[in-house]
C-alpha cells in the first residue's frame, strides 16, 4: 500500500496522512489480494484478514474479539501478512508501469486490460504515475495497430513500385512518414481529448484528481483502436474503434475521478462526437471522390490500356499497318499501336514498366496527337538517310528498320523485343525474361544475362543481310532512341 501521490509506503501508519507528502489516505481506497493484508486493531493489535474480492474486511465494522472496542476497517493498522511480499498484496497493477518481464509482454497485457478490464487497469495505475508513460503506451499502440492495418494495402500498392530506380527507398520513406504522422496525430488527439473531457467534468461537478489523471485515461484507452489493426478492413471498422475507445475511457474516468457514470460518459463524449462527425464527413467526401475517380478510370480504361501491349499483338498491328500502306512500315511504332484495343478477358500482365507513352497519346486531342507522332517520327530519324535502328514504346523496343515486314529477308530477324524501360529503373520483383518476336511471327524468351550474346548473333545475321545492326535493347530509352551504326 503506497501513497497514490508520492508512492511512499503507508504500512503501519496509524495517522491517516502520508508522512512524505501530507496527502490523506484510507485503507478502503486501496485494493488488495484477499488474505494478503493484516488489518490490526489499533488498540490491541489483534489481526484480521480481508476476504472479499477487494481484500477488504467483511463486515467493514465490528467489535474487536480481543479488547471489545468497536473497530472500523479504515481505523485499522495495515501491514502485509507474515511471509507475504509487499508487491504480492496489490490486487491491481498496471503492467506497462511495473517493469516486470519483457516490454512486449507488458504492452500486450496492458492492451488486454484496457480493452476488457479498464477499471482494474486504472486502479493499478498510481495517481502519481507519469502521464508521459501513458503517452508512450498510446504511441506504441497506435504504431502497432496502424502498421498491422496497413500491411496488406502496402503489399498491394507499394510493392509493385519497389526496385524502380530508388523506388524502394521512396516507398518506404513515404510509408514511414505516414506512420509517424498517424502515431503523432492519434497520441495528440488522445491527450487533447483527455483535457477536453476534464474540462467538461469540472463543469458538471468536482473531480478526485487533476487533468493529468483524465488524460491518462484517454491515453491508456487508446487500445480501443484494436479494430484498426485488422488488415485491409480496419479502415471500415473505425466507428466501432472510436466507440470502444470511448467506452474504455469512460470506465477509467469513473474509477480515476470518482464520478458517477453519467458524468464520465458526458465528459468523454465531446471528442468522440466531434470525431465521428469529422471522420464521417471526411470518409463521405473520400468515397465520393473515389467514386468519381473510378468512373473516370472506367471511362478511359480502353483508351489508356494501362496493361502493356503483348508483343505478338504489337507485331500483328505492324503487319496490318504495312498491308494498309503498300508494305511501308510505320515511321514510328506508336502510329500502329494506337489502333490496339485491349482484350478485357485477358488477365493482367505484371512484370514490366508501366506504360507511359501510349496513354499520353490516347488522352490528347487528334491535332495534338498528330503533332506529337510527327515529333516522335522526327526523333527516330524517319525519312532521313540514317534512321534509328531501334526505338521504344513503353515496354516494347522496335527494330524493324531495314526489314521488309511483308516479305522479310530472313525470318530470324528480330522485329520486337519486350524489356523494361531503363528510364523507369529495374522492374519489380526482380528481372523478367526478355521476349523476342522475329520477322516470321515466331517468338522466344531469353534470359537477361544471355541477351548480349544473342544480340551479337543477331547482328552477324544483319550484317550478312545488309540490315542495320541493333543495339542492346535494354539500353534503348524512350526519349533517346539508338541510332544505326554509321555506314
Give the helices and strands, then pairings.
Elements (H helix, E strand, L loop, with lengths): L36 E4 L6 E3 L11 E3 L6 E3 L4 E4 L5 H4 L5 H4 L4 H14 L1 H6 L7 H19 L1 H7 L9 H38 L6 H10 L17 H20 L3 H8 L1 H35 L6 H14 L8 H5 L19 H7 L2 H14 L8 E6 L2 E3 L15 E5 L15 E5 L4 E4 L4 H15 L16 E2 L4
Antiparallel strand pairs: 1-2, 1-5, 3-4, 6-7, 6-11, 7-8, 8-9, 9-10
Fold and architecture overview:
With about 475 residues, this protein is an alpha+beta fold. The chain has three domains: about 1-90, no CATH class; about 95-295, no CATH class; about 310-485, no CATH class. Helix content is about 45%, strand content about 10%. A six-stranded antiparallel beta sheet has the order 10-9-8-7-6-11, with helices on one face. Strands 2-1-5 form a three-stranded antiparallel beta sheet, with no helix packed on it. The chain has a two-stranded antiparallel ribbon with strand order 3-4. Helix 7 (about 165-205) packs across helix 8 (about 210-220). About 30% of the residues are buried. The model is unreliable at about 160-165, about 295-305 and about 345-355 (pLDDT under 50).
- Radius of gyration (CA) equals 37 Å
Q: Using the alpha-carbon principal axes, give the shape.
A: rod-shaped
Order of helices and strands: EEEEEHHHHHHHHHHHHHHHEEEEEHE
Q: Which range best describes the helical content: under 10%, 10-25%, 25-40%, 40-55%, 55-70% or over 70%?
A: 40-55%
Mean pLDDT: 81
Give the end-to-end Cα distance, rounded to a whole number of Å: 97 Å
Q: How many discrete structural domains?
A: 3
**Class by helix and strand content?**
alpha+beta
The order of strands across the largest sheet is 10-9-8-7-6-11
Summed up, the helix count is: 16
Sheet with the most strands, sense and barrel status: 6 strands, antiparallel
Strand % is: 5-15%
Number of strands: 11
Low-confidence parts, pLDDT < 50 over ≥5 residues? 160-166, 297-305, 347-353
